[in-house]
Write a structure and sequence with these properties.
CATH superfamily: Glutaredoxin
Number of helices: 6
Strand content: 5-15%
Number of strands: 6
Shape: globular
Distance between the termini: 32 Å
Number of domains: 1
Length: about 240
């Protein structure tokens, strides 16, 4: 997929020690984790019991606006496996995860998976819904996007990172999470496991093929001279 030079320029400009959002003093950008083998990661809790994640899902009703979808509620999502993807469009680390999330949304949509992008802005211009709408179109995001300008959903999930993935089972319980880049095959295994628990079958169990290019291509960590860690312009 080709991403415009304009988006690349915006990402580069905002990564150059711009001020952090007012709701957080520091934002850590996590380095990708390398999975030890291809085993399914630990899932929190058994596939039954109280709906521990309903409060988090209920916060979706506090979104400022929805793109690509009518507003989604915890009631409407009952019985679905849900993947929550916290992002902001100038985050280079999120951009590198985007092709995988898009691919999962497409592959498992008809098997009971609902992917919801939660756009939680870091900078003031990212609160402009038209800018978010432009980014959604530019990044070819077809799944629902909740605009979280007040960080109400962010706080309900007690989230601290971009990007962040929360895996929610068909009973509305958060069973797994992943912060930062990497571990894509493990993440897809979690999706398949939760879909199987919900009674879904018939999907290909091979990892979805992703050809990430340009700004979406993974960093070459072997040649990286310093860690990616954003601490705000005052401390850069």
């Amino acid at each position: 997929m080709k991403v415009s030079k304009l988006l690349a320029a915006v990402v580069f400009a905002t990564s150059s020690a711009a001020p952090a959002a007012s709701f957080a003093q520091e934002t850590n950008v996590l380095r990708p984790t390398i999975p030890a083998g291809l085993q399914v990661p630990f899932l929190h809790g058994p596939p039954f019991g109280r709906h521990a994640g309903q409060a988090e899902l209920a916060s979706l009703e506090r979104a400022n606006e929805w793109l690509n979808s009518l507003p989604l509620t915890s009631t409407a999502l009952r019985g679905k496996v849900v993947l929550i993807d916290f992002w902001t469009f100038t985050c280079i680390n999120w951009l590198r995860t985007a092709p995988y999330v898009r691919a999962w949304a497409k592959k498992y949509k008809d098997h009971g998976l609902v992917v919801i992008g939660v756009h939680a802005p870091e900078f003031s211009f990212e609160k402009n819904v038209e800018n978010v709408r432009w980014a959604v179109k530019e990044m070819r995001i077809d799944h629902p996007v909740a605009v979280d300008n007040e960080h109400a959903i962010w706080r309900a999930f007690r989230n601290n990172y971009w990007p962040a993935l929360y895996f929610i089972d068909a009973q509305g319980r958060i069973r797994h999470h992943h912060f930062g880049e990497g571990s894509y095959e493990q993440a897809e295994m979690v999706i398949r496991t939760l879909l199987a628990e919900a009674g879904s079958s018939g999907f290909d169990r091979e990892p979805v093929p992703v050809d990430a290019r340009g700004i979406e291509a993974a960093a070459d960590w072997r040649s990286l001279k310093s860690a990616e860690n954003y601490v705000g312009h005052a401390r850069a």
